[in-house]
Each structure stands twice: as C-alpha cells, then as structure tokens.
C-alpha cells in the first residue's frame, strides 16, 4: 500500500496518474477473427455455408474422386492407386490408326450426339410452342398447372403402345394401312428419340415459359401498332427476349441426353450404343478406372457444349 501511495503521489506531482496496464484492451489474433466471424458482414457467408457444404460433399467431392480414380491402374483382379494415363489411352485406342475412318469411341460419341441433336431440336420446337401458348393464351394459373402435369406420363408407357402387338400396330393393321407389325416403332432410333422428347420436353418448357412470362405485353402491342405481323412480332420481340430460357432449357436437355443410358437401354432394346451405356457396362464389369476416364471425357465434352451455349446469351439474367 505504501508503494502504491508513493507512485500515485509522484505521478500526481507530474500532473498525471498512470493506471495499471491491465485496463488496456487485449487485442489478439483469435479475438480479431472472432469479431470478423460474428460481424454483420459475415452473416451471408453463414447463411450460404450449409448449402455450400452439401454442394461440396455431393458434387465437388465425387468429381474429384472420379478424376483421381481415372488415373488408377486396374486388371481383372485388383485396382491399384497410381498416376498414369493408361485409361485415357484405352478410351481413344485405335482412333489414330483407323483414320480416316472413325474408331469405336468416336462412333459412340457420334451416335450419342445424333440423339442429342434430334432430341434438342424436337424439344425446342415443342417446348417453345407450348410455352408460347401457356404464356400468351392461357390466363388461368390453374389451367397452366394442369397442362404442365400432362407431361408427367412415364416413359415405360410407350412400350405397350409401340410393340409388335401394341395399340399402334393393332390400329395400323385394322385400318388396312399395313399387313404386318412395324418393327421400327419400338427398339429403334425412332423409339429412343420419341422417349427423349417425351421425357425432356418439360425441361425445355419451364425455362422458356419463365422468360416469356416476363415479357412486357406493351412491347407486342407496340410491334402491332408499328405494322408488324404476328410472325414478325414473334421473331423480333418474343424470340430475342426468350433466349435466356431457350439456352437454359437447351443446357438441361443436352446434359441429360448425353449421359442417359436408361432410356436408350429400355427403348433401344439394349441394341443401341451411347457413351452413357458404355460407362454403365464398364461399371457392371467393375472397370471403375476406365469408366471414370470415360466419364471425365464425357464431362469435358458436355462442358464445351455448355460453354458454347452460354456465349450466345448471359443466362445470369435469368437466374
């Protein structure tokens, strides 16, 4: 106590009183980070963290594992972790030696691309037409939802319709249009494209309808007042303003058709090749590294197609 009294007395003589160092706030690295994490600016990051973790666990992590496994070695008995490109060499084996003819891999990709282009063109035609009708001619929300639900019939329903003893062949024979069942109706390219169009038209309708529902009707009235015909207004007003929806719908259809193997297997009778079917067969034979390499190549091809589509229009305006 005497020592403290002297210090206060001496400091008071100098015109100031010195307090203990314990009164100053302690600033550490942990405290700074704690204040940053609990600040108002960090709130959006905390809100996005759960979905970011789900995205990382169910999307990013499987992609990383797929890429890593694609470099592993394998044989009939084991899979060995390694960092080699043998699987990618196997994917494109013979492609250079068989030039100018196409190797098996290129033929498979060409077959898949054929189905992709046909399905995309038909779904775009049907999807744009239906979306235009719903957006500009159906005012009731209930009627719009009812028409959306019409497209939910399952793919397998086509099998009894298009089979040799199905309703379509029965009608054709009864009507005298043919004498024997038409085998090309089922387990053919026609049936595969028909199933694709049936399954994926909805994924084209919804984005286009969303874009069309945002179009100001005054623009169409202004086009009519300027003397534009219905087709001119459609081509110069509706189509340009619907491009974001068209691109988004196209991305949906292209990505799903490129990787689809169930539809081709069911509607093609296990007789039509596609890259998705090749990957599925390799997985069934436990050739995981080779299947992963094929999947990486397919992913790269799909990403290039998506990149080409997104250069046409800024889809972020639609999101």
CATH architecture of the largest domain: Orthogonal Bundle
Helical/strand content category: mainly alpha
Looking at the structure, what is the overall shape?
flat
State the helix count: 15
SS elements, strand count: 2
Largest sheet: 2 strands, antiparallel
In the CATH scheme, the class of the largest domain would be: Mainly Alpha
Low-confidence stretches: 11-26
CATH superfamily of the largest domain: MetI-like
What's the SSE blueprint?
Layout: H1 2-13, H2 29-38, H3 43-69, E1 73-74, E2 79-80, H4 86-91, H5 104-137, H6 141-149, H7 158-162, H8 167-174, H9 189-213, H10 217-225, H11 230-241, H12 243-259, H13 262-267, H14 275-284, H15 288-310
Antiparallel strand pairs: 1-2
Helix pairs in contact: 5-9, 5-12, 9-12, 10-11, 12-15, 14-15
Features:
319 residues; mainly alpha; 2 strands; MetI-like fold; 15 helices; 2 domains
Task: Walk me through this protein's architecture.
The protein has 319 residues and is an all-alpha fold. The chain folds into 2 domains: 25-64, no CATH class; 87-317, MetI-like (MetI-like fold, Orthogonal Bundle), CATH 1.10.3720.10. Helices cover 67% and strands 1% of the residues. It is built from 15 helices and 2 strands. The protein has helices spanning 2-13, 29-38, 43-69, 86-91, 104-137, 141-149, 158-162, 167-174, 189-213, 217-225, 230-241, 243-259, 262-267, 275-284, 288-310, and strands at residues 73-74, 79-80. Strands 1-2 form a two-stranded antiparallel ribbon. The protein is flat and about 65 Å long.
């Amino acid at each position: 106590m005497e020592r403290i009294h002297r210090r206060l007395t001496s400091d008071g003589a100098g015109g100031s009183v010195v307090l203990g160092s314990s009164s100053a706030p302690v600033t550490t690295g942990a405290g700074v980070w704690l204040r940053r994490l609990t600040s108002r600016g960090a709130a959006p990051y905390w809100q996005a963290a759960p979905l970011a973790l789900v995205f990382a666990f169910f999307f990013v992590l499987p992609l990383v594992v797929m890429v890593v496994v694609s470099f592993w070695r394998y044989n009939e008995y084991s899979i060995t972790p390694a960092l080699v490109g043998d699987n990618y060499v196997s994917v494109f084996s013979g492609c250079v030696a068989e030039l100018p003819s196409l190797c098996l891999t290129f033929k498979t990709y060409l077959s898949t691309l054929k189905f992709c282009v046909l399905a995309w063109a038909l779904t775009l035609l049907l999807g744009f037409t239906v979306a235009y009708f719903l957006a500009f001619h159906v005012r009731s929300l209930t009627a719009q939802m009812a028409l959306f639900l019409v497209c939910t019939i399952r793919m397998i329903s086509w099998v009894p319709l298009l089979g040799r003893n199905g309703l379509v062949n029965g009608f054709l024979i009864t009507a005298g249009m043919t004498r024997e069942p038409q085998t090309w109706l089922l387990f053919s390219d026609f049936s595969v494209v028909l199933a694709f169009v049936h399954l994926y038209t909805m994924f084209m309708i919804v984005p286009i309808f969303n874009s069309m529902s945002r179009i100001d009707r005054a623009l169409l009235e202004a086009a009519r007042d300027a003397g534009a015909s219905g087709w001119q207004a459609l081509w110069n007003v509706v189509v340009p303003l619907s491009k974001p929806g068209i691109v988004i719908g196209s991305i949906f259809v292209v990505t799903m058709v490129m990787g689809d193997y169930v539809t081709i297997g069911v509607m093609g009778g296990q007789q039509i090749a596609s890259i998705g079917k090749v990957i599925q067969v390799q997985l069934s034979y436990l050739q995981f590294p080779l299947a992963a390499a094929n999947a990486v190549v397919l992913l790269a091809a799909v990403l290039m197609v998506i990149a080409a589509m997104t250069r046409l229009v800024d889809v972020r305006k639609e999101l």
